[in-house]
Write a structure and sequence with these properties.
The complex is a heterodimer of chains A (about 525) and B (about 210). Chain A has about 525 residues and is of the alpha/beta class. Chain A has helices spanning about 5-15, 20-30, 35-55, 70-100, 100-105, 110-125, 130-155, 160-180, 380-405, 405-415, 420-440, 445-475, 485-500, 505-530, and strands spanning about 185-195, 200, 205-215, 215, 220-230, 235, 240-245, 250, 255-265, 265-270, 270-280, 285, 290-300, 305, 310-315, 320, 325-335, 340, 345-350, 355, 360, 365-370. In chain A, strands 1, 3, 5, 7, 9, 11, 13, 15, 17, 19, 20 and 22 form a 12-stranded parallel β-sheet that branches. The model of chain A is unreliable at about 60-75, about 95-115, about 160-165 and about 175-180 (pLDDT under 50). Chain B has about 210 residues and is mainly α. Mean pLDDT of chain B is about 75; it is low at about 1-10 and about 120-135. The chains are: A alpha/beta (about 525), B mainly alpha (about 210).
């Protein structure tokens, strides 16, 4: 008698044959050892399949699925959460007491004046070569990240969990240590004045509408105000978010500021770092170190002991700059009285925007370059940079995939949720800087805000990798999900994204969408991983 | 009376059998309460069957994320649909069918197609026996189970769905055909091919 096919035998084993046919097979089996063997084997196979599938497919594919959070970690997380909440409640109570909104309304991006200011500043910034700066900045961040990843990978490849736990602990210790141990004096009122007769020995933090400091502050001075005038002496640094700042006295440290205007009439011991709409160093003013500013207008009438570096729409120099003057942006004017002790480097859009009077003295080289957008595609350097950039992104992607396979894969998958990622990403993109500023203006939150800032930049950098990987996979639709396929998809996606971002007028929209999508996916994935694993 | 008979029966673990019976009777009452919209009973059903449902979703869908989403959808819908359960089949099979449908819906939504698996080949053409590859049972004795699961997860959708519905959800060929909108014969073919593919993958790995 003829034997049955495997398919018939399989249906027989599954109990899916018609009654008559099943009976025929059953009758045939005792007479045929080979069919009997096949049926037995199929039965075993089914049993094995059933039993195997009953177990939860937690790690079905090495790439898909997130690494489960371990129990002990939950407790650690809870402890950190509790600590953060405690710190947060103190900070928020303090912020509530400050009632700053009136004073720094103009930096609050949610208010109308804040929005107009932001728009104005942003457009000014973009119009004056800010995007180039951003790219350079991103390159620096990318490089730093690469180094960090390389270091971390060598460290972590060994015993990952224990080391990261250690790092986590160290982080907490650092956070605790970084809390200011010295007392911080706070003042808040509509009008705050430190009279000439007064000396403050601690770090002084002031918030108010109008703030006038005539006395001596031996520590740092932190001010959030509409208007700040420093006529006295600050021995430490001056950190200020104010609309208008006038320094006619003495600041022995640095000035860190984000403000609409800064007039420096007095003496500054070290440097100015600022993001200022209008910065003026008057002829009585003196900067002991350097100027590093991004500004709408810069006027230098006084003396800068060392270098001046500025990204600005308009720069007027009639004073003295001890060393290099580096400028990028719109116009540069050096009058007859201007003195530059080092090289002059200027990057402008048009040559006629640079006016250097015959009387101006420049000790070093004059390097004035016109930056035109059109010809960057003809320069081989551009392609070399892009290739380098791409290689770095690939390397980061590869390392990420090796170190955190589940997370990376899940992030790039989460990009696919489209509007959710886009919306969430936009919220993160806008919301996190606000959180950084809010955390940063409280001294306690400063380390936190710096860490948040680092994470923010990192995430923005990584966004392209997740979106690139998603795009590549969408186009290639690889059957499996090996690392190699993932990387090929990433390469394709990144190349497409890079090309897209160079389309005139649309490129920046692509970039924005890419950053939003990636950030959203990252935030969503962070949220998901922070949830407890499924153990039910 | 029944219980006594069981305890005297020669089964090696009468206590366990008794516990199972208790559980079953208990389940019936839980379902009854859940049908009356009792939140606690619904919670109990969630607790008991979450793992099973999640497992199915995880095998049928390709990411953990969507599996989690669909699992919660299943239990959300259950609050309304449990009323339609009439007790004619075991509750687990019923639930598996519901969950399977939900997964297929999710796949359809994602791919924007009406049918997840399209009938392309004539089901009757392949009947050639394939003794060249030993059935999975032989392979599996030496393989880790995780590898089998991984191989299942990597199967193409058209093979994976029938296989999972058959051996995880324990649905009959007819039920699978109904869920996937296919002919019963085609389901048999797909299952046959799924196993062949699985054997091939595993044989290839163990080399």
């Amino acid at each position: 008698m003829e034997c049955y096919s495997e398919q018939i035998c399989a249906r027989f084993v599954d109990g899916e044959l018609e009654v008559d046919e099943a009976r025929r097979v059953r009758d045939h089996l005792p007479t045929c050892p080979s069919c009997r063997k096949l049926v037995d084997a199929l039965r075993t196979e089914n049993r094995v399949l059933r039993e195997t599938l009953q177990e939860l497919p937690e790690k079905v594919a090495s790439l898909a699925g997130l690494p489960a959070v371990r129990r002990s970690w939950l407790w650690g997380d809870l402890a950190v959460m509790a600590a953060l909440l405690a710190v947060g409640s103190i900070v928020s109570a303090w912020i509530n007491k400050l009632e700053v909104p009136g004073a720094i309304e103009w930096v609050n991006p949610f208010s109308l004046s804040g929005v107009t200011n932001l728009m104005f500043n942003l457009s000014d910034y973009l119009a004056h070569g800010g995007t180039a700066m951003l790219t350079e900045y991103a390159a620096v961040v990318g490089g730093a990240l690469l180094l960090l990843l390389l270091g971390a990978s060598t460290l972590l490849l060994g015993r990952r969990s224990q080391l990261s736990k250690l790092a986590f602990g160290a982080l907490i210790v650092l956070l605790t240590l970084s809390l200011p141990s010295s007392a911080l004096e706070r003042r808040h009122a509509e009008f705050v004045a430190v009279p000439a007769s007064e000396t403050v020995d601690d770090t002084l933090s002031i918030s108010g509408n109008t703030v006038r400091v005539e006395g001596v502050v031996n520590g740092d001075l932190l001010v959030f105000a509409q208007s700040l005038e420093v006529g006295g002496t600050v021995k430490g640094d001056l950190v200020s978010f104010s609309k208008r700042i006038v320094v006619s006295g003495n600041v022995e440290g640095h000035i860190f500021t984000c403000s609409q205007s800064l007039d420096l009439d007095g003496q500054l011991g070290h440097s100015v770092y600022g993001w200022i709409q209008s910065f003026r160093l008057s002829n009585r003013g003196r900067v002991g170190d350097a100027i590093v500013v991004g500004a709408g207008d810069v006027i230098v009438e006084g003396e800068v002991k060392r270098s001046a570096t500025m990204y600005t729409g308009n720069a007027d120099v009639s004073g003295t700059i001890g060393r290099e003057l580096t400028m990028a942006g719109g116009r540069l004017t050096l009058t007859n009285t201007a003195r530059v002790g080092g090289d002059l480097t200027a990057r402008v859009h048009q040559l006629k925007d640079v006016h250097i009077s015959d009387g101006a003295a420049i000790a070093g080289k004059r390097d004035v370059q016109v930056r035109t957008r059109q010809n960057r595609f003809t320069q081989p350097r551009f392609y070399f940079h892009q290739a380098l950039w791409l290689a770095a992104a690939m390397l980061v992607g590869w390392l990420g995939l090796i170190l955190f396979p589940g997370f990376f894969e899940a992030c790039s998958q989460a990009v696919g949720s489209g509007w959710r990622s886009l919306g969430l990403g936009f919220a993160v993109l806008v919301g996190v800087p606000v959180a950084i500023v809010v955390a940063g203006i409280t001294l306690v939150g400063l380390p936190l805000s710096l860490m948040l800032f680092a994470l923010y930049l990192t995430a923005i950098y990584l966004a392209q990798i997740w979106v690139g990987a998603f795009l590549g996979r969408m186009l290639l639709r690889p059957a499996g999900s090996t690392k190699q396929e993932w990387l090929v998809a990433l390469l394709l996606g990144l190349v497409i994204l890079t090309v897209l971002t160079f389309i005139p007028y649309v490129g920046w929209l692509v970039r924005l969408a890419m950053v939003c999508l990636g950030l959203g996916a990252f935030a969503w994935q962070l949220y998901r991983t922070s949830r407890p694993p499924i153990t039910a | 009376m029944d219980a006594k008979k069981w305890t005297k029966a020669k089964g090696p673990k009468p206590r366990e059998v008794e516990a199972n019976q208790m559980e079953e009777r208990d389940l019936a009452s839980v379902i009854e309460r859940a049908q009356g919209h009792d939140a606690e009973a619904l919670g109990e059903i969630h607790r008991r069957f979450f793992r099973r449902v999640f497992g199915l979703c995880r095998y049928m869908l390709d990411s953990r994320e969507s599996a989690e989403d669909v699992t919660s959808e299943v239990f959300l819908k259950l609050q309304r649909s449990i009323v339609t359960y009439d007790g004619s089949t075991p509750f687990l099979s019923w639930l598996m069918r519901v969950a399977g449908n939900q997964c297929i819906d999710a796949l359809r939504r994602r791919q924007r197609v009406r049918q997840v698996i399209v009938e392309v080949e004539d089901a009757t053409t392949i009947a050639a026996p394939s003794f060249n590859l030993s059935p999975l049972g032989a392979v599996v004795e030496t393989e880790e189970r995780a590898q089998v699961r991984e191989a299942v997860a990597r199967l193409p959708v058209k093979y994976r769905l029938p296989l999972v519905l058959r051996y995880y959800s324990e649905l009959s060929y007819d039920e699978i055909a109904q869920q996937l909108g296919l002919q019963t014969n085609h389901v048999a073919t797909l299952l046959f091919r799924a196993k062949q593919e699985l054997r091939r993958t595993l044989a290839h790995r163990s080399k």
